[in-house]
Amino acid sequence: MTVTETGTSTDVLAGVKIIDCDAHWTEPPDLWTARAPKSMKDQLPYQTVVDGMTLWFINGQSWASTGGNTIARDRQKVLGSHVVQPFEAIDASSWDVRERLAILDEMGVHAQVLYPNGIGFSSNHIFAIEDPKLRETVLTIYNDYMVEVQRASGDRLFPQVILPIWDMDLTVREMAKRIEQGIRGFTLSDKPELLGLPELPETYFDPMWDLFNESGTVPNFHIGSGFRREDVEASRQGVAFRTAKAAQAGPPPTVAPPSWRWFGRQRTLAVSACLAHVSNMRIVANLCNSDLFDRYPKLKIVSAESGIGWVPFLLEDMDYQYHEMVTTPEELGLAKRLPSEYFRDHLYVMFWFEKSAPAKLIDDIGVNNVLVETDVPHPTCLYPNTRERLADAVATLDSHSRRRILQDNAAELYKIPLG
């Protein structure tokens, strides 16, 4: 049987073990307090409910939200918002290993690559903690916990843990420790310069890239990973401002927000999400125009939650602009190959809700460069009816392409056992 007109049959996926390359793990309430040294127990992050909303606090100051959660208790997906509040209303599959494995079985997914949730998609929230000792402790406990999650999952959950990039010696030690513990990759800020650090190809980051190159572990750039904690807070306040009656009478913004300020909260979120999905064009274009892959030829880098429909345009655009703009010996000598050639050998992108791009653009992107995700439990996640929706998306592809996109690319990249 093939996929029907309603897209309800999943027989085209027979024998394929789907690997979800971007899902999120909501930080549980006792993540830090249960693992805190006695001397620091009252300094580490804890949850408090304020006006019906659960937030993370440090030393009496709000620090982070609980993140995007749209699956409420009893596996009910909530539309129209990006948060289920308070924390007790969130389904346990967002933060409990046994429950997450149960929902994976329900979804028909073999394994998941996990990213943080409320604390941001890289280490920027943690970098905002001023006390260096507290900052390092928060990061270490988080990574220790995610190693626990991976081990408890029986090779089905694979967290991409965070790095203390403000200290390169500490970064290398943390990488070596986590690689030894079986971690397959790390999530990074795509804009460390916003934190006052060097840009990614500068010599400051060489020890990190050396270890990525030699170990085969994966650097991941999730959309929104470059947001500073203060950017997230400003965005949260901006959404509230634009939903107030006084919004249209307010002062003109100094920087244009993603959406028009007279939009309501839901339309603001919808526009912001659309633009966030293609925000990784910046990191992909910069990586492919640099000499990073000449210096580190074994690097494999992932652009997470950014979709794939824009990729053929960017590949064509990068090469066209290169031929038109790059002419001097100095500029020509920076890198050895065309931007699109670096992409083919070193970059991965992924889709979830898209139908047009998987059906029409795989050859233009490269079947070996495409992964799939569900984004559970975030808004627009492929839940419920996960396998049916993926089957519909890849129905027109040949069996080799389906298997590469849904299973083999990720299994090879993240060294995920298929059983």
Topology:
Blueprint: E1 19-24, E2 46-50, E3 53-58, E4 61-65, E5 71-72, E6 76-77, H1 97-107, E7 111-115, H2 124-127, H3 132-152, E8 157-162, H4 168-180, E9 185-187, H5 206-215, E10 218-222, H6 229-243, H7 265-277, H8 281-288, H9 292-295, E11 301-304, H10 311-325, H11 329-332, H12 339-346, E12 347-351, H13 356-360, H14 362-365, E13 370-372, H15 386-394, H16 399-414
Parallel strand pairs: 1-7, 7-8, 8-9, 9-10, 10-11, 11-12, 12-13
Antiparallel strand pairs: 2-3, 3-4, 5-6
Helix pairs in contact: 4-5, 8-12
Poorly predicted runs of 5 or more residues: 1-9, 237-247
Q: What gap, in angstroms, lies between the N and C termini?
A: 26 Å
Q: What is the average of the pLDDT values? A: 92
Which fold name fills CATH's third level, the topology?
TIM Barrel
Strand order of the largest sheet: 1-7-8-9-10-11-12-13
Number of continuous helical runs: 16
SSE pattern, N- to C-terminal: EEEEEEHEHHEHEHEHHHHEHHHEHHEHH
Q: Assign the CATH superfamily.
A: Metal-dependent hydrolases
Structural class: alpha/beta
For the secondary structure, the number of strands is: 13
Based on the coordinates given, report the CATH architecture. Alpha-Beta Barrel
Gross geometry: globular
CATH level 1 class label: Alpha Beta
* Total individual domains: 1
Query: Helical percent range?
Result: 25-40%
Major beta-sheet overview: 8 strands, parallel
Strand content: 5-15%
Rg calculated over all Cα atoms: 21 Å
